[in-house]
Every structure is written in C-alpha cells, then in structure tokens.
Design a protein that fits this description.
This protein is mainly beta. The chain is about 15% helix and about 45% strand. It is globular.
C-alpha cells in the first residue's frame, strides 16, 4: 500500500512537472512568435517606377537649333525608356530611431562588364551594353522627439526645393514624364549627404538642411545648375556648404502650399581649385533659389502649380572660367556658358470623370482623369554681354488621360508640343506610360 501511494505520488509529480514544462515551452514559443512578428512589423518596403514609350515628331540632331532650317522636315524618332525604378526599405529600431534607404535605377540602370573576346585572341574589352544610372537616392538615420514634432536626420537626403523634388512620385503629377521646367534647371531628384532638422506641428511642416554646395564647374547653358550636384569621384566635394529650407501648410482641407529655398557658394567647390588668376580671387558663385508650389484637391478635381526662380552671382566670370580655364585642360566638364538666372512656372488641372457616377459600387477605386498642363521656363538668361541662346526659352502645352484601376497603379497617355522662338522648329510629341507607386508595411494579422 505504501509502495502504491509512493508510485501514485510519483506519477502525479511527473504529470505536474510535464504540464508545467509544456506550458513553459508554449509561453516561450508564443514569446518567440511575438518577437518575430514585432521585428517583421518594423520593416517597411516600397518604391515606384515608370515604363514609357515616346515618339518625338522632331529631329534629335545636336545642330537642330544652330541650323534649324536644315531640320524642318525631320521624320522624328521614337524611344522606350524606364525613367525611374526605385526600391525602398525602412526599419524602425524603436525608441525614436528609424532608418530608411532608397536605391534608384534610372533609364534601366547600367549594363557594363569586362569581357574576353574570343574572336580577338582573348583580348579583354570593356563593354557598355546599355546606358543608365544607379544611385543611392536616400540613406539616412533618424531620431524623433516630441512625437515627431522634432526629427533629426543624418545621411543621404532628398532636398525638397521646388515642387517636383518635394512630390516626385509618378502618382503625384499627371504627365508621363516629370514636369519639364524644374527638372531642367535644378537637380531632380535632388539628393545630398548632410543633416536635416524637420517636424510637423498641427497644420505646418518645416525642413532645414545643411548640405554640400553645388559645383559651378558642372553648370551649363541648357540645364543651368541641374548637374551641379553631380560628382564623378567616389566622394562629394564639400569645400563649401549650403543651406536649404522648406515650409508647408496643410491647414485648409484639400489645400497644400509650400515655399522652399536654397543658398550656397558654388565656385571652387571642386578638387580642381588651383586657379590663381587674380580675376577669380573674389568669385564666390553664390546660388540662390526660391520656389512656391501648391496643390488643391476637391471632389474629383485636382489642381497643381509651381514657380521657381534662381540667381547665380558672378555668372560672367564663371562662364569665362568654365570655357577657358577648364576647357583648355580637357577636363570632363560641360565647359559652356551659364546664365545669371533661370526660372520656370507651370501648372496642371485634372478632373476624374468617373467621380460623377452616382453608383460607386460599379467603379470601386477606379479613377479616370482628363488633364491639361502648361509650363514656361528658361534655363539661360545671360549676364552682361554674353551670347543669348534663345532656344532655351520654351512654352510647353500638353494634355491627356490618367487611368487608375487601383490607387497604386496609373496608366498614362499624353500628347504635347514644345513651343520655341519663331526662328526654331516647334517640338510636338506623344507618350504612353505604365507607372506604380506603393509603400507596404508588414501586418502580422495577414500571415
């Protein structure tokens, strides 16, 4: 009897231990699952991109402006393109620390390699099979305070100067390509390595940035300071620093208004700084840019507009330096004149014709916008007595449709014409494009 009781006690004790162990394992598994889900839920992925076909009913010859009469009867030319393919990855470390990165493939990226040519006795040759660019558009670490009213970002950042840099995803403009004006005269998408202070308080958002200044050696006639943020080296020269700022207001429902600006000295912001001529001693090449942009959405209507003006100090001396000093040394720079100022202004208006259908269940999330767009810009307004290239003065008129079967995808069709001065040939074109833009956040409930 005593042995039986001892045996039953042993069985009961073993059962309790096994049950407790099972509960502990179950709790551990639940905790591990929660931790895994917690880690996964902190990731954000997304991106955007476009695939485009365009036909230009005008010559693409480099002399079409210098000898315009020779290209009046041009047959035109077509092209296919992937202007942008951008992929984003973000992570929330917790305690206010976040990370974000974007890698951008422009025009399909690059296809280059060193190959062994068997038909040429094994000679090694560098092959470039397809043009394009690959760039790290964003790569930053952020610390947030006061519930995101104050944030500090450090790393590679987008510079939100102008309407297009601030809203450059393909679902944020109607055209197949980005608006021409700002995209011509300033860097777009403009990204630099620096530090940013930003935040949002009620209906206001502010941005202040310290970044490397633009490089005047890269300025030119057709694009003003557009290429000034580029660097052919493995680093970005930062002899001069610059400041950028932006303030946005969202107080009125459906209306967004933003002002932005940039200031920085561009001369000698390069590794080529050994020019000792006395005429350049006091040259700073200060670049000042100011912009105003807005968007308004109401019912099925969308209206967007922007204006931007830029000024370059010492433009005459910088033009002389670029053409003579840099040009004589055969550096890989544009080596052209640059304007003392440049500017652009434009707007677009669209209406969703499906919005008027009363039975919303028939159309779901679909939208079909009809739109028109107008721009006027000039990338070269000469200083002093410099040559005036009047073909940089352009009006652009276009219109078309945007079809959105779902919010993340837009199919675009557009036709337009670029109007130049009377001595040049106008430039009509048509284009179609398929675009996407989406950001996804992990949701453990869907697993």
């Amino acid at each position: 009897m005593r042995r039986l009781r001892s045996f039953l006690c042993f069985i009961l004790t073993l059962t309790i231990v096994l049950q407790a162990n099972a509960q502990e394992k179950s709790t551990l598994q639940d905790t591990t699952t929660v931790k895994k889900d917690s880690v996964r839920s902190r990731f954000t992925i997304g991106g955007y991109g476009e695939a485009v076909y365009k036909y230009n009913f005008f010559s693409d010859n480099m002399f079409r402006y210098n000898h315009a009469s020779d290209y009046t009867e041009s047959r035109g030319h077509g092209r296919v393109d992937i202007p942008h393919g951008v992929f984003m990855l973000g992570y929330d470390f917790g305690k206010g620390w976040t990370f974000n990165t974007e890698i951008e493939f422009e025009h399909g990226g690059t296809e280059s390699a060193v190959e062994v040519e068997t038909e040429e006795t094994g000679e090694h040759e560098k092959e470039i099979e397809r043009g394009g660019e690959v760039a790290l558009e964003q790569f930053w670490l952020q610390k947030s305070f006061l519930q995101s009213k104050l944030n500090i970002r450090m790393g590679h950042l987008v510079v939100p100067v102008g309407g297009t840099n601030n809203a450059h995803l393909p679902n944020e403009y109607f055209g197949v390509y980005r608006p021409e004006g700002e995209n011509t005269i300033i860097p777009c998408t403009w990204h630099e390595t620096g530090i940013e202070l930003w935040g949002r308080v009620k209906g206001w958002r502010y941005d202040f940035m310290v970044i490397p200044a633009l490089n005047s050696s890269m300025f030119n006639v057709s694009g003003w300071v557009h290429n000034g943020s580029a660097s052919p080296y493995e680093f970005k020269v930062a002899n001069n620093l610059a400041f950028a700022a932006r303030i946005d207001n969202y107080s009125i429902s459906g209306l967004h208004i933003g002002i932005s600006g940039y200031v920085g000295n561009s001369f000698r912001n390069d590794i080529v700084t050994n020019e000792n001529a006395s005429r350049y001693e006091k040259v700073k090449g200060t670049v000042v840019i100011g912009g105003l942009d807005f968007s308004y959405k109401h019912e099925g209507f969308i209206m967007r507009g922007s204006g931007l003006y830029g000024y370059l100090a010492d433009a005459s001396l910088i033009s002389s330096y670029n053409v003579t000093s840099l040009g004589s040394r055969n550096y890989e720079y544009p080596c052209t004149l640059v304007g003392a100022s440049a500017w652009s202004a434009g707007g677009e208006f669209g209406y969703d014709i499906l919005h008027s259908i009363k039975d919303r269940t028939r159309i779901g999330q679909r939208k079909l916008y009809l739109f028109v767009r107008y721009e006027y810009y000039d990338s070269y307004r000469p200083a002093d007595m410099l040559t005036d290239y009047q073909w940089t003065d352009r009006h652009c008129i276009s219109g078309g449709i945007n079809y959105r079967p779902i919010p993340e995808i837009t199919i675009k069709a557009e036709g337009g014409i670029r109007l130049l001065k009377a001595q040049y040939n106008n430039e009509p074109w048509v284009a179609i494009g398929a675009t996407w833009a989406a950001y996804f956040k992990h949701d453990k409930k869907k697993n």
